Amino acid sequence: MTVLVTGGAGYIGSHTVRLLRSLGRDVIVLDSLVRGNREALLGAPFEQGDICDSTFVTDVCRRYGVDSVVHFAAYKSAGESMTNPGLYWRNNVFGTAQLVEGMIDAGVKQIVFSSSAAVYGNPDRLPITEDCPIRPENVYAETKAVMERVISWYGVTHGLRWVSLRYFNAAGASSDGVLGEDWSITTNLIPLVMKAALGASGPLQVLGNDYPTPDGTGVRDYIHAEDLAVAHVAALDYLQSGGGNVALNLGTGVGTSVLEILKATERVHGSSVPHEIVGRRPGDPAIVYADPTLAGTTLGWHARHTIDEIITSAYNFHRSRVV
């Protein structure tokens, strides 16, 4: 049987597609290519289309004999979601409902959902466990929380079986430098650090140095894209073996500050990274990191890559593409 990967031409999606194919799994990618890169598919079977078209989803599922779905297709910029919320409600929430409708019509009842730790908002306690309150602080995060609820309700009404993977700060590039994050469209820290280090932008803006952290800058849990791909495959296997519906945190359980990211990059780059301190971004918590225990006990999964490996892989990927 075949795995349908929505958003498989995106950052984490392409890593997951590559891993699935290397394991001999049959894969079909569905992507609109609005923000995906077809080259990142590395020749994987592909159908271009919109998850909002449930009839198209049903047709793809039937033609390829799909038995499970990994759902990455979503817009993910917190800032953009606050200036253009309608885009996020349509693509992320309505799109997920239509995707599941199309799946159900084709008899497909297993889905692994790419969720986000952003659903927790500003946490009351650390590390963050799955029973922490869901309190999104921007439209993007709210759509992820609603997408989780949409999927869980289809479990109640139609027997859909699901795993929601709430991962923390995805980062890094493939170990061979083939796949990585597109720094022209992302707002994630590490690609922006690489852009500044390699002279492809002005100085990095460090958003606040007055947080109650050891060096004053925000602390986050960075997890390698290849570790995330392994988790999605493990979640598919978990569902195939009859596992129950569950939401799981994916992280390392270790926090790294912005200044620590800069220092790690400087070790690889061999010189300082241009940066400037600016004001905090409203709503940003000081420290966020995961308790990944449940993912370990449920999926047998643990993050393997260190922060230095994340930085080195990202640096090598971006350096190879600087003209």
Q: What is the element layout, followed by pairings?
A:
Layout: E1 2-6, H1 11-22, E2 26-31, E3 46-48, H2 54-64, E4 66-71, H3 78-83, H4 85-105, E5 110-116, H5 139-158, E6 161-167, E7 169-171, H6 189-197, E8 204-207, E9 219-220, E10 222-224, H7 225-240, E11 246-250, E12 256-257, H8 258-269, E13 275-278, H9 293-299, H10 307-319
Parallel strand pairs: 1-2, 1-4, 2-3, 4-5, 5-6, 6-11, 7-10, 8-13
Antiparallel strand pairs: 9-12
Helix pairs in contact: 1-7, 2-4, 4-5, 6-8, 6-10, 8-10
Strand order of the largest sheet: 3-2-1-4-5-6-11
Low-confidence stretches: none
The number of distinct helices, counting runs of at least 4 residues, comes to 10
Structural class: alpha/beta
Order of helices and strands: EHEEHEHHEHEEHEEEHEEHEHH
Radius of gyration: 19 Å
Could you describe the 3D structure shown?
This protein has a 7-stranded parallel sheet, with helices on both faces. Strands 7-10 form a two-stranded parallel ribbon. 39% of the residues lie in helices and 18% in strands. Helix 2 crosses helix 4, helix 4 packs parallel to helix 5 and helix 6 packs across helix 10. Strand 5, helix 5 and strand 6 form a beta-alpha-beta unit. It contains 10 helices and 13 strands.
Outline of the structure:
By secondary structure, this protein is α/β, with parallel strands linked by helices. The protein has helices at residues 11-22, 54-64, 78-83, 85-105, 139-158, 189-197, 225-240, 258-269, 293-299, 307-319, and strands at residues 2-6, 26-31, 46-48, 66-71, 110-116, 161-167, 169-171, 204-207, 219-220, 222-224, 246-250, 256-257, 275-278. α4 packs parallel to α5 (139-158).
